[in-house]
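Shift notes (night). Ran DNA-binding response regulator while the centrifuge was going.
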Amino acid sequence: MNSPKILVVEDDKAVRNLIAITLQTRNYKYILSDSGESALLEFASEHPDVILLDLGLPDIDGMEVIQKIREKSQIPIIILSARGEESDKVAALDAGADDYLTKPFSVEELLARLRVALRRTEYIWNSDAKNNHIFENGDLKIDYASSCVTLKGEEIHLTPIEYKILNLLSKNIGKILTHTYLTREIWGSAFDSDVASLRVFMANLRKKIEPEKSGVSYIQTHVGIGYRMVKIEKSD
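Came back to this:
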């Protein structure tokens, strides 16, 4: 991806300028917006690669901005918000956000989250360009057409639920999937019992794709929120 373009939606001038300087020094292109309505206009006209979005905007709530963008695009959205409650994070992620940073945050953490989002964008573009049914991440390979999963060339036998979880994570690589999203996609509901079952299935799945000796973690746990598949480099 050449010169990614970042849309920064933040009404606090000091924070907005800090982000702008940070992006500029890393040679990112960026567009600045201080309201929800202008953000939607910039999104439609500038076609950014990633959106950094504050939830507390002066005109419309950031949650509404997420929903309007999700009606048209799967562009990665990283929330930057002073709302630090777990319920706020879950609500934003369930609405379609990819990631959530609570203010105040460090510049390095912001850049790290941005790199994750850009890798996800690149993966989506490459997958669309290849138009194939094969997913590869590190030594993990999924053939969606045959529902076959291999690790370092060796087939892994998964239960239907384990495969469905892996399928959802792989097709949303780099994005945090909440417990609510996962349980609804798997069982069509989001009861506490489903979340407890999800944790059991997730633990069993990780034992199969993350052998202890490998030291590789394909799945990242976000305590109280959900899970994310991370991009892994292929081993020699």
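The chain is about 45% helix and 20% strand. The longest strand covers residues 5-9.
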